[in-house]
Amino acid sequence: MPTNIITREGFDALKQELDHLWRVYRPEITQKVAWAASLGDRSENADYQYNKKLLREIDRRVRYLRKRLEDTKVVDYAPEQEGRVFFGAWVEIENDEGQTKTFRVVGYDEIYGRNDYISIDSPMARALLKKEEGDEVQVQVPGGEATWYINRIYYGS
Fold it and tell me: For the stretch 109-129, what's the b/e string if a residue is b when 16 or more beta carbons lie within 10 angstroms of its beta carbon?
């Protein structure tokens, strides 16, 4: 089970998605289902079947979002975090080959569609937590262990 914490931005994005699904998208699809149902035989009506399936998917996502918003705890930035890797930090790391990566440590619900965010539950984030700039970090990867060096830690955008 993923950690139930989320950044303020992540929480606001989930709320915005829920609001859009419930107030805009769902009524639109419900209207299409009603229109398609009025055409008669539903068993061979592709519009009806497709939109009914879409409605079920929307309802499933709405239930999920409501539960997650209720169960997650928003973790806001605190000045005490400065200089160390904590939840919400942007971290720039580098390996011995000179390859660099920059990402933000966030909650499970925030990583989808973002290649610059990693989950607090990931091996990389776990290895980086509480470390400082200049620290060397050993990370367990499928091929063994990888060494990374922390170049920069910052909070904000």
Answer: bbbeeeeebbbbeeebbebbe
